[in-house]
């Protein structure tokens, strides 16, 4: 075997073990008995120790030095394996295992604290998570910015300064649009009770409409919706609210965007470093274009209105146009995942600033709730009424995912670019969506972006798909046009 072949054989086993660890995480969030959390934390720590040893095995360095890439795919494989190898060598094995142990335990503590509105019960374990991630960030940064080092795990090649510049361009136009919309007459709301059975039936239907392959996946319930896995086993979760069916429907479409990206990657990348989404920003571009540009379009909501009438009867909306306005309703609210397109990125901008301050030691965990509440009031003009609507609403920090949040807004920017190109290339898109058929859009995304996996760097992946360099302009132009029309601005 050549050095390249030996390296890929070794890497496939590592990737397979990482998939097993991911499956343990899925199990923990969906069906694991609550009394199993302590043992699961030890299992996750043990498996992380095995993975860290493989990822830092000196033979990987030797193979990288000797390997010759046979083609473009080989060059990309070597690039990504080297990036990960050099990253993991900077982190002690004991620290990697401890992070896995503590974050596994912290997620269960967070879920319980959120249910009980108990910030005090969550802060001690969050302090441990923050301490460990600060230590990891310092090890990775080697005298550089620890937050940038963590951000690079989720969006390789991007710095917090670049993200801040993008956010600086987004904020003025988003705030101006929000203020104009909030001052206009309100859009209608759906009313009534929406059974869980009906919501899950519709969730399965829209998942199939957006290309999700149930023969290689499944849909379950979780406290916080997520997608897990890659290749031939990609699972999604959603949640239900008897008074708000949109939470379930659009959480499902969102996670299907993530999942079909993973399911759509070319099989030749199976169990390699290229066999998964290239970054979380690009990943988020798929979930957001599915959820917003496609799922909240006038064409698709016309079809959805009919299906909801079939399942739930009258729910206080007279016609398709009113339903379109209800789906895209802008209103003051606390929850990021339930936010409208106009305000969603403002939630991310707030979290981006707070987690940078946390990782750089400018804010301590004991002061985090106060900092959150002050910033939320300043940005949204509403006082946080309870912890589950504030600091405890998101799972990310309990899981130690510092550097993750900004990729949501980066994904929105990428989605705006992709949607402009999609509209350019698929002339009858609205006619398809009006029949509940998203296959034209899904096929375009699969061919132009999804099948390539990690072949190209993140920004180059979007540029290749769209045919132009990404910027925030398409997203902002789209939002101003859409909501200007919806609210008669």
TrEMBL record:
Molecular function via GO: metal ion binding; metallocarboxypeptidase activity
Top-level EC class: hydrolase
Cofactors named for this entry: Zn(2+)
The keyword Transcription is annotated on this UniProt entry: no
Biological-process GO terms, alphabetical: proteolysis
Note on cofactor: Binds 1 zinc ion per subunit.
Sequence positions that bind Zn(2+): 254, 258, 284
InterPro entries named among the record's database cross-references: Peptidase_M32_Taq
EC number assigned by the record: 3.4.17.19
Reactions that this protein is recorded to catalyse: Release of a C-terminal amino acid with broad specificity, except for -Pro
SUPFAM superfamilies from the UniProt entry: Metalloproteases ('zincins'), catalytic domain (SSF55486)
TM region positions: none
Active site per the UniProt annotation: 255 (proton donor/acceptor)
Summary of the function given for this chain in its UniProt record: Broad specificity carboxypetidase that releases amino acids sequentially from the C-terminus, including neutral, aromatic, polar and basic residues.
Family named by the database record: Belongs to the peptidase M32 family.
Protein name: Metal-dependent carboxypeptidase
């Amino acid at each position: 075997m050549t050095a390249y072949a030996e390296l890929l054989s070794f890497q496939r086993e590592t990737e397979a073990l990482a998939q097993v660890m991911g499956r343990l995480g899925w199990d923990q969030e969906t069906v694991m008995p609550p009394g199993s959390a302590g043992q699961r934390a030890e299992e996750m720590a043990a498996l992380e120790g095995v993975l860290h040893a493989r990822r830092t095995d000196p033979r990987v360095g030797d193979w990288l030095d000797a390997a010759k890439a046979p083609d473009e795919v080989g060059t990309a494989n070597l690039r990504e394996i080297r990036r990960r190898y050099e990253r993991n060598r900077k982190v002690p094995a004991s620290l990697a295992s401890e992070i896995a142990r503590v974050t596994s335990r912290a997620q269960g503590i967070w879920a319980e604290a959120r249910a009980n509105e108990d910030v005090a019960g969550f802060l001690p374990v969050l302090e441990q998570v923050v301490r460990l991630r600060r230590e990891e960030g310092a090890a990775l940064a080697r005298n550089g910015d620890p937050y940038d080092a963590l951000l690079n795990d989720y969006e390789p090649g991007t710095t917090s300064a670049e993200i801040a510049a993008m956010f600086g361009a987004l904020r003025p136009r988003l705030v101006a649009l929000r203020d104009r919309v909030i001052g206009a007459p309100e859009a209608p709301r759906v009313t009534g009770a929406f059974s869980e059975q009906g919501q899950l039936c519709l969730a399965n239907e829209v998942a199939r409409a957006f290309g999700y392959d149930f023969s290689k996946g499944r849909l379950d319930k979780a406290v916080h919706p997520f997608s897990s896995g890659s290749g031939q086993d990609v699972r999604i979760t959603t949640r239900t609210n008897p008074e708000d069916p949109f939470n379930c429907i659009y959480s499902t479409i969102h996670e299907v965007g993530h999942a079909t990206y993973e399911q759509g990657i070319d099989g030749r990348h199976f169990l390699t470093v290229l066999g998964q989404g290239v970054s979380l920003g690009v990943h988020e571009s798929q979930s957001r274009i599915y959820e917003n540009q496609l799922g909240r379009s006038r064409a698709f909501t016309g079809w959805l209105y009919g299906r909801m009438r079939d399942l739930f009867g009258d729910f206080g909306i007279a016609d398709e146009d009113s339903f379109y306005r209800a789906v895209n309703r802008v209103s003051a609210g606390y929850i990021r995942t339930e936010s409208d397109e106009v305000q969603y990125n403002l939630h991310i901008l707030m979290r981006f600033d707070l987690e940078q301050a946390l990782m750089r030691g400018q804010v301590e965990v004991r002061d985090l709730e106060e900092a959150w509440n002050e910033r939320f009031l300043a940005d949204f003009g509403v006082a946080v009424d309870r912890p589950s609507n504030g600091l405890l609403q998101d799972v990310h920090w309990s899981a130690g995912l510092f550097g993750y949040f900004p990729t949501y807004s980066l994904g929105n920017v990428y989605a705006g670019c992709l949607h402009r190109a999609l509209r350019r290339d698929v002339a009858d898109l609205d006619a398809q969506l009006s029949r509940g058929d998203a296959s034209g859009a899904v096929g375009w995304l699969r061919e132009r972006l999804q099948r390539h996996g990690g072949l190209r760097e993140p920004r180059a992946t979007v540029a290749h798909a769209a045919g132009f360099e990404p910027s925030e302009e398409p997203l902002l132009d789209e939002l101003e046009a859409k909501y200007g029309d919806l609210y008669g601005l």
